[in-house]
């Protein structure tokens, strides 16, 4: 009776759920402490605006199945407060919905409020209006900036509290972050930077979130803020206080993509090595940046020249499909580390040298109860070491995990998880369906060159672009005239050289309304010089330059004041005549006429402004708008827009921006390696593919953007392309492959069960995407087959196991096959045989 009365009182006071569901989060030198228990945490970055809300739960579920405990995300100020004091949290910017979706999956959240994000996001996540507050200076002891930053942090924290989303309120948020990688640029702000760090820390703690705060890449993070590591490797990182845990907030699984660059990727063997070394050396919390990268829809991509795809070679690819073998190998790694958790957080490590570049870290609970990590951190030489009286083989650049100090359940260099053909590796005849657009269905509109509206304005000299456009458009027209002496007779011309200097990012030059030259920079140096020889006539000649932005700068000291647009225009001839036009009178027009008219919008689809003459759509012309309708590709697979035949521009589907494209900007022809050696220190330029090709030709179109019946596609082509080459593609199937030998390790999640057996049997596992199933076995051999996924061939030893694999796997979403002679056949008895299977999944 007394207990019932107590519960009634709690309910009446509104405290019942706090008592039942609240979670206490603290930390010590060993780990984060969740409800009094130290925890090893695996985390992954998923940015809610880089995909659509309807697919958030599926991505989060795959992250959980991959062994994650935490989802980490930035908060994107510029889209949450596009106008000062006016907030937006709808659609793919519904932060509360995203956090609740993570909670529904049973995972925690690390909320990186910042509010500076970087993230290859436009302006690093800062709203552009912030720049135009008179007297403001970003990320330093400037009262105007601090006031705005404090207001936004309070807004986000209050919103989370109102929804009971912090751990102490029963929510999933166990960590928060203030600022972001400020330690990398703090030197540029002098004493103001040091004082700013102290202020930001005090602000964060004062918000009373009841969860720990972190500052990443911030060696001087004041107590109680936890300073954390960002980078490709963090095993050597040491927190700035003996009372703080060793945390890794950004482990780069690959790298971002930029127009004009080859596609970077990171071998999973190296990534797993980095993770295992981190936990081997006392790490406690590790986050993959990114676990799902997604897409920079619209003009969200930062700059300069960051591409629309933000795939990042992540464990879950841009379209939400599992990226194998990365996802599977890391999943097995997480299971293996989790089996050592009690040792890692409650025992002290003993380090033991096993030879040159060879070492062990042993975590003892007692003299005969321990877990161990054996590492070969040499980049070239395999080794056999002796540990606890037993012999262990360690491939170069690898870590073996022994949760009982005796049995190896995982080695970072031994990849036994399945592979898959995804993205650019599609065998399109088998797994892709191409939907070309009708060549007779295009309408078009020719953009006016130069000044097009009565909202143009004049100024003496060249204006900086960002301060002029306020980033409402990528485009700014610079227009002036060049007058030649009348001694040039009628119908004659004079050759003049033009040299135009630009801070970036690209520019089209028109003389007398005709295109004559195009110039551009690159991601590492957006500035460029555009030179051209032009023929001018007697009298007045018009000079129009369309300056183009490709994302506002998002990183670096004082990045917010880095400029764009023209800074110099010089005209010369062969007779020593020279004219500096930089300080003359110019007329300016912000944006394009087509943007002003809203040609990308569904409401303009039937406007008479569009021209249509059957199949005679003009091609390879600059500043063309194209429009057509199409029916959505059949099925439920992901959809992409193929823009390989276009130049540079933007695309919209049903009025929603797919993003910027630049198919004509090719990467350098050298520097790529199809089989990059994972051994040795990785950096973003080590492993590259698609040399001599566009960075991106396929652009993600979310299924939720498409409707039954006709859909609208609008393209704005800036340089020149052929719209008849455009098509939509959808994935109708997926080829998956497995390759496991008789002496490979069994799956880590079956380790305990296998300890009682003399033989620990390895398993070949295959799994289709959720909702798909295996429809056929394309290849199956037990012996020494050769080749790679999509191109396997039989070797000299071949046991035909097609019927066995077919019986076990066909019709199922996933299957597991024991790899042993007893199960698969005994040909070639003196050979360690490999089971290799290639299967087709379809919905």
Helix and strand layout, with pairings?
Blueprint: H1 2-12, H2 16-21, E1 25-27, E2 32-34, E3 37-39, E4 41-46, H3 56-65, E5 70-74, H4 77-80, H5 95-104, E6 108-114, H6 143-162, E7 173-178, H7 190-206, E8 213-216, E9 226-231, E10 247-252, E11 263-264, H8 268-280, E12 285-292, H9 326-338, H10 341-346, E13 349-355, E14 358-366, E15 369-376, E16 383-387, E17 390-394, E18 398-402, E19 410-411, E20 419-421, H11 428-431, E21 432-436, E22 443-446, E23 457-460, H12 465-469, E24 475-484, E25 493-502, E26 506-511, E27 514-520, E28 528-537, E29 539-548, E30 566-572, E31 578-580, E32 585-590, H13 593-597, E33 624-631, E34 639-642, E35 648-653, E36 656-662, E37 688-689, E38 698-701, E39 710-717, E40 727-731, E41 733-741, H14 751-754, E42 763-767, E43 773-783, E44 798-799, H15 802-809, E45 814-818, H16 821-824, E46 834-842
Parallel strand pairs: 4-5, 4-12, 5-6, 6-7, 7-8, 8-9, 9-10, 10-12
Antiparallel strand pairs: 1-2, 2-3, 11-37, 13-14, 14-15, 15-18, 16-17, 18-19, 20-41, 21-40, 22-33, 23-32, 24-29, 24-32, 25-28, 25-30, 26-27, 26-29, 30-31, 33-39, 34-38, 34-40, 35-36, 35-39, 41-46, 42-45, 43-44, 43-46
Helix pairs in contact: 8-9
């Amino acid at each position: 009776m007394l207990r019932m009365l107590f519960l009634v009182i709690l309910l009446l006071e509104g405290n019942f759920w706090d008592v039942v569901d609240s979670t206490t989060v603290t930390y010590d030198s060993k780990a984060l402490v969740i409800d009094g228990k130290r925890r090893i945490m695996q985390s992954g970055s998923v940015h809610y605006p880089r995909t659509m809300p309807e697919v958030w739960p599926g991505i989060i579920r795959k992250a959980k199945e991959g062994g994650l405990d935490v989802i980490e995300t930035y908060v994107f100020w510029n889209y949450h407060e596009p106008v000062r004091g006016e907030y937006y949290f709808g659609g793919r910017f519904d932060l509360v919905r995203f956090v609740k979706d993570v909670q529904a999956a049973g995972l925690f959240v690390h909320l990186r409020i910042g509010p500076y994000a970087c993230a290859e996001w436009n302006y690093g996540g800062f709203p552009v209006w912030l720049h135009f507050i008179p007297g403001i200076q970003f990320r330093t002891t400037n009262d105007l900036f601090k006031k705005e930053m404090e207001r936004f942090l309070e807004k986000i924290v209050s919103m989370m509290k109102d929804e009971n989303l912090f751990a102490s309120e029963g929510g999933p948020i166990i960590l928060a972050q203030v600022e972001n990688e400020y330690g990398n640029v703090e030197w540029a702000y002098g004493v103001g930077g040091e004082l700013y760090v102290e202020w930001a820390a005090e602000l964060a703690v004062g918000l009373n979130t009841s969860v720990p705060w972190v500052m990443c890449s911030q060696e001087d993070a004041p107590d109680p803020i936890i300073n954390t590591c960002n980078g490709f490797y963090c095993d050597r990182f040491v927190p700035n206080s003996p009372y703080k845990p060793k945390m890794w907030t950004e482990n780069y699984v690959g790298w971002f993509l930029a127009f004009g660059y080859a596609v970077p990727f990171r071998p999973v063997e190296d990534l797993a090595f980095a993770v295992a070394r981190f936990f081997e050396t006392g790490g406690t919390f590790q986050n993959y940046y990114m676990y799902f990268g997604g897409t920079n829809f619209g003009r969200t991509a930062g700059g300069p020249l960051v591409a629309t795809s933000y795939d990042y070679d992540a464990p879950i690819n841009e379209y939400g499909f599992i990226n194998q073998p990365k996802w599977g190998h890391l999943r097995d790694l997480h299971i293996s580390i989790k089996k050592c958790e009690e040792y890692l957080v409650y025992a002290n490590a003993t380090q033991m040298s096993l030879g040159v570049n060879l070492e062990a870290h042993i975590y003892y609970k007692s003299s005969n109860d321990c877990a161990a990590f054996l590492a070969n951190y040499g980049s070239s030489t395999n080794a056999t070491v002796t540990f606890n009286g037993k012999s262990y083989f360690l491939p170069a650049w690898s870590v073996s995990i022994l949760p009982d100090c005796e049995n190896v359940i995982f080695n970072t260099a031994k990849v036994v998880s399945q592979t898959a053909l995804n993205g650019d590796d599609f065998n399109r005849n088998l797994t892709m369906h191409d939907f070309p657009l009708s060549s007779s269905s295009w309408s078009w509109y020719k953009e006016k060159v130069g000044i097009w509206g009565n909202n143009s304005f004049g100024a003496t000299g060249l204006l900086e672009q960002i301060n002029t456009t306020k980033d409402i458009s990528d485009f700014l027209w610079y227009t002036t005239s060049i007058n030649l002496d009348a001694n040039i007779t009628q119908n004659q011309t004079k050759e003049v050289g033009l040299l135009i200097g630009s801070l970036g990012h690209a520019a089209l030059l028109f003389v007398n309304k005709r295109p004559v030259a195009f110039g551009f920079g690159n991601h590492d140096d957006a500035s460029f010089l555009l030179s051209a020889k032009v023929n001018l006539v007697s009298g007045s000649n018009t000079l129009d330059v369309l300056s183009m932005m490709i994302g506002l700068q998002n990183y670096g000291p004082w990045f917010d004041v880095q400029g764009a647009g023209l800074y110099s225009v010089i005209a010369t001839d062969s007779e020593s005549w020279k004219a500096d036009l930089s300080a003359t009178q110019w007329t300016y027009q912000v944006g394009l006429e087509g943007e002003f008219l809203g040609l990308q919008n569904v409401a303009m689809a039937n406007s008479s402004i569009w021209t249509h003459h059957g199949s005679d759509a003009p091609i390879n012309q600059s500043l063309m708008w194209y429009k057509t309708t199409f029916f959505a590709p059949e099925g439920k697979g992901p959809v992409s827009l193929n823009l390989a035949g276009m130049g540079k521009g933007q695309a919209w589907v049903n009025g929603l921006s797919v993003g910027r494209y630049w198919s004509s900007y090719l990467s350098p022809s050298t520097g790529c390696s199809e089989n990059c050696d994972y051994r040795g220190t990785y950096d973003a330029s080590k492993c590259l593919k698609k040399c001599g090709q566009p960075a991106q030709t396929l652009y993600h179109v979310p299924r939720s953007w498409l409707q039954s019946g006709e859909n609208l596609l609008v393209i704005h082509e800036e340089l020149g392309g052929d719209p008849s080459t455009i098509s939509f593609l959808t994935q109708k199937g997926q080829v998956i492959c497995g390759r496991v030998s008789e002496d490979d390790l069994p799956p880590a999640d079956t380790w305990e069960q296998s300890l009682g057996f003399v033989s620990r049997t390895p398993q070949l596992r295959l799994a289709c995407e959720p909702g798909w199933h295996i429809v056929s076995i394309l290849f199956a051999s037990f012996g020494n087959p050769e080749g790679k996924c999509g191109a396997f061939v039989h070797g000299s030893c071949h046991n035909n196991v097609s019927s066995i694999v077919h019986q076990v796997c066909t019709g199922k979403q996933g299957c597991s096959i024991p790899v042993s002679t007893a199960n698969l056949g005994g040909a070639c008895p003196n050979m360690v045989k490999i089971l290799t299977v290639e299967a087709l999944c379809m919905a």
